[in-house]
Amino acid sequence: MLGKKLVTAQKRGETRALCLGLGMIACSMMMYFFIGITVVPFYTKSVWTTETVCKVLKANIKDKVFCPNSKGSEDEEIFPYPCLQVWVNLTASGQEVMLYQTEDTLERNPKCSYVPDKLENSKEVKARIETIASNFKKYQTFLCYYDPGGTQTNVILSRLYPAKGLLFAFLWPTLMFTGGCLIIVLVKISQYVSVLSAWQ
Question: Which residues is 145 bridged to in the sheet?
Answer without folding.
Answer: 51, 156
